[in-house]
Amino acid sequence: MSASRHRRWKTAPPHPRVLASAVIVATALLSTGAAVSTASAAPLSACTPTHGTIVVVDFAHWGGPIVRGCGVGQRTGYALLHAAGFTTAGDEHDGPAVVCRLGDAAFHHGTQYPTPDQDHCVQTPPTTGYWAYWVAPQGTNHWSYSLLGAMGEVPKPGQVELWIFGATNVAGTHGTGVPSFSPATVRAHPSARGHTSSTGTTQTSTSSSTASTTTHTTTMTRTTTHATSTPTTTATTTTHASTSAAVHTHRHPTHRRRPPHRPPHHSRRHRHSTTDSSPTTRAGATKVVSARPTTRRASSGSSTPLIIGGAIVLLLCAGAGRAIWLRRREE
Amino acid sequence: MSPSAHTPGRDTGLDGRRVPRELHPIAWWLWAVGLIVAVNRTTNPLLLVLTLSVLGFVVACRRGSAPWARAFRYYLMLAGFVIVLRLLFRTVFPSGVTPTDHILFRLPQIPAPSWYRGVQVGGPVTLEATLSATVDGLRLGAMLCCIGAANALANPKRALRVLPGALYELGMAVAVAVTLAPQLIESVQRVARARRLRGGGGRRLRALRSIVVPVLADALERALMLAAAMDSRGYGRSGAASPWSRRVTGGLMLAGLAGLCVGAYGLLDGTAPRVLGAPVLLAGAVVCCAGLALGGRRVTRTRYRPDPWSGPEWTVALCGVACAALLYVSAGDSAAAVDPTFYPLRFPPLPALPTIAILLAAIPAVAAPPPIRARRRAPAADGGAERSTRTELVT
C-alpha cells in the first residue's frame, strides 16, 4: 500500500464524521465476505519426544481440564497454539500478541476464557489474573517462564509449552499461575505415535516418558520433585496402551479446585518444598484431554449498526451545526 | 440578569421565551463526570464517536460567550493528537501479526538481536492493529473531550464557590491564574488597537516594544488593584484561628494527603499488602476531610448572589448520572457489544441500551436554560461575574 494511505491515517482529524467515515471505508475495504477460518489441528500423535511441540492449556481456574495439543514446525508460540486447535484473543491495547483469552472445543464448546464479563480485555491483563506462559525444553523437567511471549517464543522440537491462568508475582515464583505439575506429566510419549486419539475425544495418558511402563507413578512424582515447582501429580493407573482409560492427574486440592468466577488469590506456598507437594488427598482430580480443532465461523457482522450509528452521529452534528449557525447570525 | 431568572420555577420570561442564565457549574461537572464514567466502560468505536457528537451538540447549543467557552475545540484537537500518537506508536512498534490479518503496508523492519526479541521495530502494519489503536486513542480522546465540554460550559469562577472554606484562598489564587491568559490577550488587543488608531507604524521590533511595555504596565496595575481589592476583603487573614489550631489543621492535611498517596499506591500495586490499599486510602480521606472542616471554620463567607439549584440543574446532573448507570448496568448483558474486537475484522455492533444511555446525555442541550450571549455580555456577564466573585466576603 502506498504512503498516501499511511499519511491519510496519520493526519485523520478527530472530527467524529471523518472518523466514522474512515472506519466505514476501512471495514468496507476488506470485509466483503464472511471469512471462514478452519483450524486444522495436528493430531496429538504427530508429536514425539524429539519431534513436534506439545502445547498444554490449563483451564483449572474455571474447573476445566488440562487440554493438550500438538504442533509441528511452528514458528511462534502463537502459531503453535492455533496449530494445536486452540483459539486466542488479544486485548485491545496490545493486539493479538498478548493472549488475553484462550479457548478450545474440548472445554465448554470452545468458549474463550476469561469471558468478557470476567475480563474486558481492554488493557493488558493484570498480574493478578492472566495466562502465564511456561516452556520446558527437551531434556529438562522444570518449567521456565517465557520471557518473549507468544509471538517471540520459537517452539523447538521436543519442547512442552504450558498456558496456565492465574496470578503470579513479578518474579514468577509464587502464585496460582505457577504450574503445579511437572512437564514430564504432559510430555509426548515415545511410542504414542500411531494409536493416540484420532477422534480427539479420548482422554490421553499423562505418563512421563521416563516412567512410561510403570503402573504406579509414585516414583515418577518423587523424581520430578527436585526440578518442578510443586509436583502434585500422581497418575494412578498409567498404561499408555489403554488410551481410553480415564487417567486423572491429582492436584493440590486447596489451590486448584476453586469454583469458577472467583478472582484468583495470592497463595503463598513454598515453591520447592517436597512436603507441600506430597499427594495428600485425591479429591481434586483434573482430567487431561486432547485439544480439538475449533471451527470458528468468523463473520464480518452486519453493517446495519454502522449505518444507524452514523445516521445518529450525522443528526447530532447537523444539530450542532445549526446551533452554531444560529449563533453566528445572532452575533 | 433579571431577578426572576434566579427564582426557581420561573425560567420563562414575559415573552414566553426562556430566560438566559448560567447553569450551576456543578450540574455541568456531574454531567461530564457521568459521561467520562460511561466512556471508560466501552471500547465500541460507534459508542465513542456517538459520545463525541453528543458532547459537540450540547456544547454548540449551550455554551456562553466567555473566554473559557471556546475551549472545546482545543480539546478536540488534543483528542486528535492522542489518536495520532497512539496510531504512530502502534505502527512503529507492532505487537505481532497473525496469519489472518489484513496487511496495509510494510515498514522497514529493524532487525533486533536475540536478547532483544521481545520488542519489534517496524514491520507489517495491519488494518486490525490500525483500527484498534484508533479506537484505543479515541477512548482517551473522548474522555478528554468530556472534561473539555465541562470546561466550556461551566463557569470556573462560580465553581469556586463550592470549594470547602479551607481551600477558598487557594481556589481564589487558581481562579486569578486561570483568568490571566484571557486578560493578557484582551490587553494586547486593546493596546494594539490604540496604537493603530494613533497611526503608529514602525518595524517589527519597535512595534513589539510599543506593545509589550504598555501591556506589562497594564498587568502590573491590574495586579496591584486586584491585590488591594482582595486585601480590603480580608483575603489571607487567619481570622480568629489560634496558632495551635493552625498547626493541627496543617498536620491533619499533611497526614491525610500522605494517606491518600500511600493508599492509591497500595490500591494500584497488586503486590502491596492489602492493608496499604483501601483502608489507608479511606483513613487518608477522613483525615483530609477533618483538616478541611477544621480549617474551614476560621473562614466565614457570606454569599451575595447564590447560584440557584433548580429543575434544569437536576435534569442536567441526572442525565449524566443516568448515562453512566444505564451503561454500566446494560454492559453486563452485552459485554461483547460494548467491548467489540477487531480480531477477526468485523463491523462494530451498536447495542441498544448503551446507545440510549449515551443519547440521554444529549438532553441537556434542550433542558438547560439558554446561555447568556455576547450581545448582553458587556454590562451583565463580564462585570457581573467579576463582581460576584469578589463579593465572597471574609469576615
Describe the structure.
The complex is a heterodimer of chains A (331) and B (395). With 331 residues, chain A is α+β, with helices and mostly antiparallel strands. Chain A has helices spanning 3-10, 16-30, 77-83, 218-225, 253-256, 274-277, 304-330, and strands at residues 35-38, 53-58, 66-71, 87-91, 95-103, 130-136, 144-145, 160-166, 248-250, 285-290, 295-298. In chain A, 22% of the residues lie in helices and 18% in strands. A seven-stranded mixed beta sheet of chain A has the order 7-6-8-2-3-10-9. In chain A, strands 1-11 form a two-stranded antiparallel sheet. In chain A, helix 2 packs antiparallel against helix 7. By secondary structure, chain B is mainly alpha-helical. Chain B has helices at residues 25-41, 45-62, 72-92, 127-153, 156-159, 168-178, 180-197, 204-232, 243-268, 278-296, 311-331, 335-338, 352-360, 364-367, 377-390; strands at residues 103-110, 121-126, 301-302, 393-394. Chain B has a two-stranded antiparallel ribbon with strand order 1-2. In chain B, strands 3-4 form a two-stranded antiparallel ribbon. The two termini of chain B are 27 Å apart. Classes of the chains: A alpha+beta (331), B mainly alpha (395). The interface between A and B is large, with 77 and 67 residues.
Percent helix of chain B: 55-70%
Number of DSSP E strands of chain A = 11
Report the span from N to C terminus of chain B.
27 Å
Strand residue percentage of chain A: 15-25%
Shape of chain B: globular
Query: What characterizes the major β-sheet of chain A?
Result: 7 strands, mixed
**What is the end-to-end distance of chain A?**
48 Å
Largest sheet of chain B: 2 strands, antiparallel
Q: Which spans of chain A have pLDDT < 50 for at least 5 consecutive residues?
A: 1-39, 192-284
Q: Which structural class do the helices and strands of chain A define? A: alpha+beta
Shape of chain A: elongated
> Structural class from helices and strands of chain B?
mainly alpha
Sheet with the most strands: spatial strand order of chain A: 7-6-8-2-3-10-9
Rg of chain A, rounded, reads: 24 Å
Beta fraction of the residues of chain B? under 5%
Question: pLDDT below 50 for ≥5 consecutive residues: which ranges of chain B?
Answer: 1-9, 376-395
